[in-house]
Write a structure and sequence with these properties.
The structure is a homodimer of 139-residue chains. Chain A is mainly alpha-helical and 139 residues long. Helix content of chain A is 58%, strand content 10%. Chain A binds a DNA duplex (20 and 20 nucleotides) through helix 4 and helix 5.
DNA sequence: CGGTATCCTCGAGGATACTG
DNA sequence: CAGTATCCTCGAGGATACCG
């Protein structure tokens, strides 16, 4: 092969991941999955549910900045992708409990690694950002 | 080790991550970092640069769907956060090479785990999605 | 309690053209 | 070759009000 991309023994084969389909990278299955995980509230909700199951109201209290609309939507998206299970208890008034599925727990492992990386290194990122912005302003 | 959550020891302490600041979760440093990583092209560019350094044009060819504007912007954001190094060669015409910094390589480890998880499990996610949508339509 | 239904804003991301 | 500069679209996400 004469492509300049496929040599060098990288950590992972780029082509294997990208899976070109008639030139459309938008269908790339990896991006399709990562896109949802990258949502504004997704990681926080996953983090909470990884700790233990929660009811809707309890999640709102845990993450007070989220609007009820986005909490509903985020939970529905997570449920749709198979990460979260939704169980309704026909009490009065009704209670709804959300918990991670097996797939959700599986996905949470690499996600939590990323979150913990961010937790450990956000200072360095912040410093890099400030240095960059200062150089921009100065120059 | 005393965990806040009585349930079998949560994987990570929610409060430690969330770091409430006068009720503003928007400042959560974790989300601040994850937000950039969750960008549409970030993971793909990181994936490419983890393999080896690339020039601007080579990256465009690798990821043909990206617009030059977004490639520029994504690279600048990655550089700003300290993940990517930008080196200019004053040849004729000038060449610019992008490579991962040490911080970038550090961040790429958990990121690649997530990407590989997506690579291995996107079929299950797709199946869950279809099942969910079908149930919605049917009911 | 656990949601829908609407309306609105704002910025990520795309298309196209030009430049040192 | 490696970008800027403009303009535009579209949908994520917020605010508010109502509902079973």
């Amino acid at each position: 092969m004469d492509m300049d991309s496929a040599e060098g023994g990288g950590i992972y084969d780029f082509e294997t991941i990208v899976r070109r389909r008639e030139g459309n990278l938008g269908d790339c299955p990896v991006r399709e999955v990562i896109a949802n995980i990258g949502g504004k509230w997704t990681s926080l909700i996953m983090l909470a549910l990884a700790e233990k199951p929660y009811r809707f109201g309890a999640l709102r209290r845990l993450v007070p900045d989220i609007s009820q609309r986005m909490l509903t939507q985020t939970l529905r998206d997570l449920q749709r992708d198979g990460y979260v299970n939704r169980e309704v208890f026909p009490t009065k008034p009704p209670g709804v409990e959300y918990s991670l599925t097996e797939l959700g727990r599986s996905m949470f492992q690499p996600l939590s690694d990323l979150v913990m990386w961010a937790e450990r290194n956000h200072e360095r990122v912040r410093a890099a950002r400030e240095a960059f912005d200062e150089a921009e302003t100065g120059a």
